[in-house]
Design a protein that fits this description.
The structure holds two protein chains of two kinds. By secondary structure, chain A is mainly α. Chain A is built from 14 helices and no strands. Chain A has two domains: about 55 residues; about 240 residues, MetI-like (MetI-like fold). By secondary structure, chain B is of the alpha+beta class. Chain B is elongated. The two termini of chain B are about 40 Å apart. The chains are: A mainly alpha, B alpha+beta.
Chain lengths: ~300, ~350
């Protein structure tokens, strides 16, 4: 083989000449220091400040702030919205990824672009879309209000805005995975007599489960943390339509720093938990994830 | 089970992949679909499986029209080129899959499924590897699991798409012989796709040579090799030489020389002469022959491969001679094809 023939030659010179892909010591440490400084300044420090500010007046005030009925309502609303939006996007995401990865049809590229739309549009605009769609002067507004259905400045509006904003997470995670895996596993299952549903349940789903879980985690983090779009459609009714991020803003604007940062710690904790679970998944199931990726 | 393909046409978009293909596959036969890539062989296999639906035409399994049936209803066994094993299932779960997903009424008991899967794993010589995952197996072992999985459902017909295409030469040869043994033992009607003529000629009872969406020739390996019925088959299977000749009064002429081959009954006029490198007689003198100057002489195992510049043609001709014939470059050699065929364009 070619590299066997070359091996002795390169072995002799390896101590003098460094390999093509390694940098000088200075460059290496410089790059590491730069990344650490950047991470420290923009990620670790803000996170630390959130926690120190929240606990500035002792844990007593911290718990008191969280026990506030309006804050408590905001937490419950956030959980409710995530509990509706995440499963919806789980189903939509799988359906969209399935359609795009496993079938050929006209307008496929367009659909793929469309799925990315919520990422490329400012969240405020996403919120405004729903105001224009469901507001009292809109097309659907009068019909809805005549039937006693309240979308805007109520839970349905917040759910809609959240679903819209978090739509791409699951789909984007699954599309490349499913495209890479192709359709032969499904064809194999069908040829063995499995029904469409059995094929999905026993073959497709296990193949994508890690990617799916990953997408759901990210989707959930964003659903709970979304501010812009939700802010536009919520109406900021205290104890009714304020989610946690909105509650943080209100408390902060009222100079209730401990309260604001106390709620913020919950969101920060959510982020940390998400990261930990994600790392755990990758650590514990790295073999399976790798096996699912190759093959 | 006997499979009949009748006037099948398949278009992908506006591109015709198969044009009016008919083929009878006998029960218990091992048949190869052989052709270059793009010849439509895999499309034909997938149509028989029901993984594609024909634009036109019918496929019969026995006397029943299978073309309207779904892939599940056809009860076939399909082996994919890249195995398509379920990577999150162990070997035994892969093999048992086809039985486990059956509706309760037709599903064997759990113990029977297990027994059957174990028997099949034994048959494909993977005993002791039941608990392994596909990622822990070599390519050849994966392919054997795929075959066991396909056979578990007692298929009407076993379909293999380039079954050895992704394996290295040594494993290929072994698996080839082994597939033949399995086939002889189980008697499944088997169709496999290959672009490797050695594989097709060595393994199959009959070979279907395909090109550009059509069947060129169907026959036993001997028929295909010895009596190709078209220039394509002659050129595609084995080595061959071609020369532009002329038929005059039952004799073959190259330019102004008779080559000493009589062709009684052939119509007058230009034609293309096909012959294989080993189908020649070496001559001492030339009273009507093909003569040429040796340009390259190579010893390959027990024979000598000689390339010649033939007087009267610019084409290179390759012939095979016994190894002890000294054919040094520059020497003249006279010969005459003893088995040949004429085609007219």
């Amino acid at each position: 083989m070619a590299h066997d023939a070359l091996a002795p030659a390169s072995g002799n010179t390896s101590e003098m000449v460094r390999s093509a892909t390694s940098e000088s010591r200075l460059a290496r440490y410089g790059l590491i220091a730069l990344s650490l400084a950047f991470v420290g300044l923009f990620l670790v420090m803000p996170l630390a400040i959130v926690f120190t500010e929240a606990l500035r007046n002792g844990p007593g005030r911290f718990y008191e702030a969280l026990a506030d009925p309006e804050t408590w309502a905001a937490i419950r609303l956030t959980l409710l919205v995530a509990a509706i939006a995440v499963p919806l996007n789980l189903v939509f995401g799988i359906a969209a990824a399935w359609a795009i990865a496993k079938f050929e049809f006209k307008g496929k590229a367009f659909l793929t672009t469309l799925i990315d739309l919520p990422f490329s549009v400012s969240p405020v605009i996403s919120g405004l879309v729903f105001v224009l769609l469901f507001g009292s002067h809109s097309l659907l507004g009068p019909w809805l209000s005549s039937h006693g259905i309240k979308v805007l400045f109520a839970v349905p509006g917040i759910v809609l805005a959240t679903v819209f904003v978090t739509f791409p997470f699951v789909a984007r995670e699954l599309i490349p995975l499913m495209q890479e895996q192709g359709t032969s596993d499904e064809e194999a299952a069908l040829s063995l007599g499995a029904s469409g549903w059995q094929t999905f349940w026993y073959v497709t789903l296990p193949n994508i489960k890690w990617g799916l879980l990953y997408g759901v985690l990210l989707c959930n983090a964003r659903a709970m943390g979304e501010f812009g779009a939700v802010s536009v459609v919520s109406g900021h009714i205290r104890g009714m339509t304020n989610t946690m991020p909105l509650q943080v803003e209100i408390l902060y604007n009222e100079y209730n720093f401990v309260g604001a940062f106390a709620v913020a710690t919950l969101l920060a904790l959510l982020a940390l938990v998400t990261l930990v679970i994600k790392s755990l998944l990758e650590f514990k199931f790295s073999a399976q994830i790798a096996a699912a990726r190759k093959h | 089970m006997e499979v009949r393909v009748q006037d099948i046409r398949k278009e992908f978009g506006r591109f015709p992949a198969l044009e009016k293909v008919s083929l009878d596959i006998r029960s218990g036969e091992l048949i190869a679909l052989l052709g270059p890539s793009g010849s439509g062989k895999t499309t034909l296999l997938r149509l028989i499986a029901g993984l594609e639906s024909p634009t036109d035409g019918t496929i019969f399994f026995g006397d029943a029209d299978a073309s309207k049936k779904t892939v599940q209803e056809r009860n076939i066994g399909f082996v994919f080129q890249h195995y398509a094993l379920f990577r999150h299932m162990t070997v035994i779960d892969n093999v048992a899959f086809g039985l486990k997903v059956r509706p309760a009424a037709r599903r064997p008991s759990a113990a029977d499924i297990r027994k059957r899967a174990e028997d099949l794993i034994e048959l494909v010589q993977l005993g002791g590897m039941e608990k392994r995952y596909p990622a822990q197996l070599s390519g050849g072992q994966r392919q054997r699991v795929a075959l066991a999985r396909a056979m578990a459902v007692e298929p009407n017909v076993l379909l293999l798409d380039e079954p050895f295409g992704a394996l290295d030469a040594q494993v290929r040869k072994e698996l080839r012989r082994w597939l033949r043994e399995i086939h002889d033992r189980t008697g499944h009607t088997t169709v496999f796709v290959t672009h490797d003529q050695d594989e097709a000629l060595e393994l199959a009872d009959r070979v279907v040579v395909m090109s550009k969406g059509r069947i060129e020739q169907v026959g036993t390996p001997d028929e295909i090799y010895d009596t190709p019925n078209s220039p394509f088959v002659f050129g595609f299977i084995g080595q061959s030489n071609t020369l532009p000749v002329r038929v005059e009064n039952g004799q073959l002429w190259l330019e102004d020389r008779s080559i000493g081959v009589s062709a009684p009954g052939e119509p007058q006029g230009p034609a293309e002469l096909y012959f294989r490198p080993h189908d020649i007689d070496l001559l001492d003198g030339c009273g009507g022959c093909l003569a040429g100057v040796v340009t390259i002489s190579r010893r390959v195992a027990g024979t000598r491969h000689v390339e010649l510049d033939i007087a009267g043609s610019t084409r290179r001709i390759e012939i095979e001679l016994p190894a002890d014939v000294a054919a040094a470059p520059g020497t003249r050699i006279a010969f005459r094809p003893n088995r040949w065929k004429l085609f007219r364009s």
